[in-house]
Write a structure and sequence with these properties.
The structure holds 2 protein chains of 2 kinds. By secondary structure, chain A is of the alpha+beta class. In chain A, helix 1 packs across helix 2. Chain A is elongated, with a radius of gyration of 20 Å. The termini of chain A are far apart. Chain B is of the alpha/beta class. Helix content of chain B is 35%, strand content 22%. Chain B is built from 8 helices and 8 strands, in the order βαβαβαβαββααβαβα. Chain B has a 7-stranded parallel beta sheet with strand order 4-3-5-2-6-7-8, sandwiched between helices. Chain B is globular and about 70 Å long. The chains are: A alpha+beta, B alpha/beta. At the A-B interface, helix 1, strand 6 and helix 3 of A face strand 1, helix 6 and helix 7 of B.
């Protein structure tokens, strides 16, 4: 259960990046998470609601893209998606594989923001 | 009202990863071999480490250890009986060690004077796998009392390990431990990994383990 600290890091990173977008509201945060990253999406979602409360991310949606484990097979030279996390074998030739090319990612890909109204309204804001 | 997408492409654990990279550089230039020991609670990490520290010290090596637990300094006191410098890291609820905790607890230690530094992680088979501590070797431990299929249940950790240690092999008989199945399962998750079968109690398998440690030591440049 380290999802809460992971979500805390997400809030920190996005908040930091937001400083250049004054007053913007975050609508959505998109993550790329490898199947071997040792995090559970349900826990992330649960913790996200708690950790974003009172921050600029409050009310935003968390979108998690799970990336399959891709290995490179030294025997047949091909990259392939392993079918089961219980068996690290080449999907093409069946040889054991340990050369991981994807599956440990734990990253913020992007976030979507809504610019503050002030920017569009310009001078006309004064009543 | 306009919406837009801001590309970030940033590792969530970026801060930890950067700190870990810095630690790894420090360890390498100091010529100290750093190992991160990970297992479930109760596997016998501390007993295995006590034995390892004692045997290494008897062989003339300079060793030290950091040990992580949620609370208490019981393990540090046990390990310190070996005569090696030991520091306890209390995480107060956090289920894993992070690079920053390691860095903080190294203050004042002369790394260049050490041959080996062991970091005993918090007993947990999930969370520690995400946190790089700057170690050269990550060791996954499994005891004969835990069941041979544990590597299949916790692939994220076993796949990230550089070596595996089976502990308490003196209890293999009474536990009807299936050695062949255990080896098969560990290597299904991490093909080709070195596996050591040890008993901290009888000393079985320790010679092979110590030999491995020696092989992993970075060779200090002659200049």
């Amino acid at each position: 259960m380290h999802e809460l600290s992971i979500v805390g890091s997400i809030v920190d990173s996005v908040t930091e990046s937001l400083t250049v977008y004054h007053g913007a509201r975050v609508l959505e945060v998109r993550l790329r998470v490898g199947a071997l990253a040792a995090v559970v999406e349900d826990s992330l979602q649960f913790c996200y609601g708690i950790a974003t409360e009172g921050t600029l991310l409050q009310g935003s949606k968390l979108v998690v893209q799970i990336l399959p484990v891709i290995v490179h097979c030294g025997a047949c030279g091909v990259d392939g998606v392993i079918e089961s996390l219980q068996s690290f074998t080449c999907p093409h030739c069946g040889e054991p594989v340990s050369d991981l090319r994807q599956g440990r990612e734990l990253e913020i890909e992007s976030f979507e923001i809504e610019d503050a109204e002030v920017e569009e309204a310009g001078e006309a804001v004064t009543p | 009202m306009t919406t837009r997408i801001v590309e970030l492409r940033q590792g969530i654990l970026k801060k930890n990863d950067e700190l870990a990279r810095g630690l790894r550089q420090r360890f390498t230039s100091a010529g100290v071999l750093v190992l991160n020991l990970v297992s479930s609670p109760g596997t016998g990490k501390t007993a295995f480490l006590e034995r390892t520290l004692r045997d290494l010290k008897e062989g003339g090596a300079n060793v030290a250890a950091l040990v992580g637990d949620l609370e208490t300094d019981n393990d540090a006191r046990r390990l310190a009986a070996s005569g090696a410098p030991v520091r306890q890291i209390n995480t107060h609820g956090i289920c894993h060690l992070e690079a920053e905790m390691v860095s903080k607890h190294l203050e004042g230690w002369d790394l260049a004077g050490l041959d080996y530094l062991f970091i005993e992680n918090v007993g947990n088979l999930v969370c520690p796998s995400s946190y790089d501590l700057g170690e050269a070797v990550r060791v996954a431990l499994l005891s004969v009392t835990e069941g041979e299929d544990k590597p299949l249940k916790y692939p994220t950790l076993f796949n990230s390990a550089d070596a595996a240690v089976i502990t308490k092999i003196d209890l293999a008989g009474p536990c009807e431990f299936d050695r062949v199945a255990a080896f098969k399962n560990i290597r299904a998750i991490r093909p080709g990994i070195r596996i050591f079968e040890t008993s901290a109690k009888t000393g079985a398998g320790m010679a092979e383990w110590l030999e491995y440690l020696k092989e992993q030591r970075p060779s200090r440049s002659a200049s």
